[in-house]
């Protein structure tokens, strides 16, 4: 019985809170501004991460190409050996 009463009170309080916030102009402004800030932060971080990853991939490819050319010139491609 106690859990039923607890769930009922929780439901009523939840409904009151949701209705109060849904009809609050202040909360609506807060929600819109928060959403805009989060979208801006997320897109900025994503762009920075993508640029950083691209730069690291480019450096890794350049380093691999240099190492390949060095190995090729020295004749040490590691092939053969039995």
UniProtKB/TrEMBL annotation:
Region named Disordered: 62-82
Origin superkingdom: Eukaryota
Family matches, as PANTHER family: OS04G0508100 PROTEIN, OSJNBA0043L24.15 PROTEIN
Protein name: Unnamed product
The species this protein was found in: Ostreococcus tauri (Marine green alga)
